[in-house]
Amino acid sequence: AAEQTQAAEQTQAAEQTQAAEQKQVAEQKQVAEQKQVAAQTQAAAQNQAAELQEDTESHIQAAADPIERIELALNRLADATYAFEPKKEVFVGDVFKVEVVMQLDSSLNQISDFFPDVDLTVGTLKVGEFVQIKLTSSNEEKLTVTPITEDKQPISTSITPKWVWSINAKEEGPYTLYLNIMPLLNIENSDGTLTQSPGRNKTIDEVIQVTAKPFNFVSWLSTTFGIVSAVVGTLLVGVLINVITNLVNNRINKRQREQQ
Q: Deepest in the core among 144, 148, 165, 190, taking most CB within 10 A?
């Protein structure tokens, strides 16, 4: 019995020793895994810090180099489409409008929707956040140009800018209107401020041909505006005649009553 008890105690001691060794091995393994995770985390942090430093140095270098700043701005450009009516036939004395619409190609609307039933000139270009369009006349004295909207306008997926000018044809003849389309880049300065500049971006020139004819009643009457004006004028004349007739009749009736 004593031997059996001693054997049991030895077995129990061996099992306890084995359990302790297994526990120690598990703890050592856990510590090793924790060290490995910590090393990986530290390495990732070091890589991230290195990348951030590299980006910062690149940004500082780009900000210090005008050419690099322009390159950065050019990389942010988007594709856009513009449209306008390339020909106008008007009568001398007419005041009409010239419109240019531009939108990003990522927009859902068709640019032709802005000019229904009109022959258009459509062009494409690269744009930043702003576009400047100016319109000038081949003869400022005989064909005057008055801007209605600002020359410089923003453009984005939610903004479709429209440029509008009022044109007055004072004398007959053929004229040319010149469109100058200039996309503007937001170039970052070394101090973090932005400067708007065309940079090395493409500037586009377009022309609109205008023919101003001497006033002709028959031709004018054939236009939609002429027809509407003629109808309105006829109605007004009819109303005026009716009013005058009523006034005359009222006076005649009043005199007749007075004489009676």
A: 165
